[in-house]
Amino acid sequence: MQFYRQNVNLLLPSWLRKIGDAYLVQASKIYRANDIPFETSWFPVFLVLSKHPSATISEIAEILEVTQPSVSQVTSALERKGLVNFNTSKTDGRKKMVSLSEEGQRMVLRLQPLWNSIDRAMSQMLFTHEKTRNLAETLSIIEKLINLELHREVQSILADRPVNIRQIKSTENIDLYLQFKKNEGIDFIFPEKACKVYAAFSDQEVIGAVAVEKQSPSEFILYNLYVCRGYRLRGIAKGLLARAIPQDSKTCIIMDRATPELVDLLLKCSYSFKVEVNTD
């Protein structure tokens, strides 16, 4: 870095490219850590589409000040992933309009908390150095912060978001179902009978839920346990189970299916369990 600082005016394009590459590496880590299959190269085009209902390739290129072929390449990749749709303009049959698909809209909802956290992390890290006026020093600070702290800072911000878990009323079940269907593309099962549903909220956003039914003082049927993909590995599933089912080694959880992750969670929480496959 010292060589770049000493020759900042001559090496500025290379240094900016180096900083940009480091930023993209950190962003990729953040997406992977939150189990979101998103490529950093898609971001500028995807961001434009998240703010415009539809746009042509040329309009997106004009907004981003890049070439139309580069936008076309990204939109084609997004179409292959099912994140955008191409449709003929209603006012001009010669124009092809690009818009987010339902899956693309769900992806925006998953990405928005990460984008907000990245923005906040960069602002917080640069705030302490806001009095810096020398270009070389400023670039050195930005590069160091990105390489050493961005991924860690973003994960810290996400982890610090307060989570509230509460039992929801039966009248809220359909809203919960529709939210999971729209945002995550899953069917959240909660039989009406004596089933109780607990949901986890972060900033009024539903980020997880569990549906259980008490069979006896020591037996509970687990119908569904789900945590949104951007919020996993933060103890939310454990918190949902703890609210819905007493944590006791004598407590048995009955399920009709079990993933390795769920089995591992139940063992860590000291629950006993059994799988009863419904053959009807």
Describe what you observe in this structure.
This protein has about 280 residues and is α/β, with parallel strands linked by helices. About 50% of the residues lie in helices and about 20% in strands. The protein has ten helices and eight strands. The strands form two sheets. A six-stranded mixed β-sheet has the order 3-4-5-6-7-8, sandwiched between helices. Strands 1-2 form a two-stranded antiparallel sheet. Strand 7, helix 10 and strand 8 form a beta-alpha-beta unit. Helix 2 runs parallel beside helix 7 and helix 4 packs across helix 5. It is globular and about 75 Å long. It starts with a helix and ends in a 5-residue tail after the last strand. The mean pLDDT is about 80.
Task: List the topology elements.
Elements: H1 2-6, H2 8-33, H3 43-51, H4 57-64, H5 68-80, E1 84-88, E2 96-100, H6 102-127, H7 135-159, E3 164-167, H8 173-183, E4 196-202, E5 205-216, E6 219-227, H9 236-244, E7 252-255, H10 260-268, E8 272-275
Parallel strand pairs: 6-7, 7-8
Antiparallel strand pairs: 1-2, 3-4, 4-5, 5-6
Briefly summarize what is shown:
By secondary structure, the protein is α/β, with parallel strands linked by helices.
Write a concise keyword list for the protein shown above.
alpha/beta, two-stranded antiparallel sheet, six-stranded mixed beta sheet, 18% strand, single chain, 10 helices, 280 residues
